[in-house]
């Protein structure tokens, strides 16, 4: 391959407690997260950070690493104009994408899993009020014209403790999408304890 390569200007570098180098690329997102072991950091710097342009031949022995960095968006062809790339990513996110909302119908949970990141305070959060639901619907009515689909993720606490909120909001979301001919989908993150046949039936009818 003759292509010259360069490091993306959207790379972010930091180190972890062990001194390994952590790289994140803001254009590629979470899939770009890469760790360079402490023992390889100097070599990495020599190969990839010492020059603005990287001759691909210089990396021949490191093909696997180079391929990985290219796939992660950390290393790119030197003739790519990243400003244009950024504008296109931004445009797609704002105007052309699926609107994805994560909603907590309640902060309460019927479990106390030892590994849970929720705190005793968050478990005290009450069910979403009608005012909050209406504010969310108002936001959605304003935002939806800029998107091509709506996806809702029901989260908590344990969302199945508040099926009425899920039902009421889902009915409204489905209606808002129907009148605009937009696809609607939803998922739920639940411990499943309350998932009996009736609950399943309700969720199924609500596209969850
Ligand atoms: S079910 Fe989920 S929210 Fe509830 S305690 Fe367990 S991990 Fe936390």
In short:
This protein is α/β, with parallel strands linked by helices and 208 residues long.
Describe this structure in words.
- This protein is an alpha/beta fold and 208 residues long.
- It folds into two domains: 80 residues; 109 residues, Alpha-Beta Barrel (TIM Barrel).
- It is 37% helix and 20% strand.
- Strands 2-3-4 form a three-stranded antiparallel beta sheet, with no helix packed on it. A three-stranded parallel beta sheet has the order 6-7-8, with helices on one face.
- The relative contact order is 0.12.
- Bound molecules: iron/sulfur cluster (SF4).
- The site of iron/sulfur cluster (SF4) has 10 residues, from loops.
Give every kind of bound small molecule, once each.
Answer: iron/sulfur cluster
Topology as H/E string? EEEEHHEHEHHEHEH
- CATH architectural group of the largest domain: Alpha-Beta Barrel
Overall strand count = 8
Radius of gyration: 23 Å
- Tally of contiguous helical segments: 7
Mean pLDDT: 89
N-to-C terminal Cα separation, in Å?
A: 47 Å
Main CATH class of the largest domain: Alpha Beta
Strand order of the largest sheet: 2-3-4
Q: Unreliable runs, pLDDT <50, ≥5 residues?
A: none
Q: What share of residues are in beta strands? A: 15-25%
What quaternary form is this? single chain
* Principal-axes shape call: elongated
Secondary structure category: alpha/beta
Largest sheet: 3 strands, antiparallel
């Amino acid at each position: 391959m003759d292509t010259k390569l360069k490091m993306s200007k959207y790379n972010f570098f930091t180190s972890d407690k062990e001194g390994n180098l952590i790289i994140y690329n803001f254009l590629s997102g979470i899939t770009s997260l890469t760790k360079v072991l402490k023992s390889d950091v100097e070599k990495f710097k020599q190969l990839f950070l010492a020059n603005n342009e990287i001759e691909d031949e210089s990396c021949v022995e490191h093909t696997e690493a180079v391929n990985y960095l290219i796939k992660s968006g950390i290393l790119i062809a030197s003739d790519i104009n990243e400003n244009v790339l950024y504008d296109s990513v931004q445009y797609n996110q704002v105007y052309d994408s699926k609107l994805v909302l994560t909603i907590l119908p309640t902060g309460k949970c019927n479990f106390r899993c030892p590994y849970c990141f929720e705190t005793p305070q968050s478990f005290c959060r009450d069910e979403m009020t009608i005012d909050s639901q209406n504010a969310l619907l108002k936001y959605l009515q304003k935002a939806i014209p800029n998107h091509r689909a709506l996806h809702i993720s029901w989260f908590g606490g344990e969302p199945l403790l508040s099926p009425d909120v899920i039902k009421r909001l889902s009915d409204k979301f489905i209606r808002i999408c129907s009148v605009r001919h937009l696809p609607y989908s939803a998922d739920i993150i639940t411990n499943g304890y309350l998932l009996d046949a009736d609950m399943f039936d309700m969720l199924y009818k609500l596209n969850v």
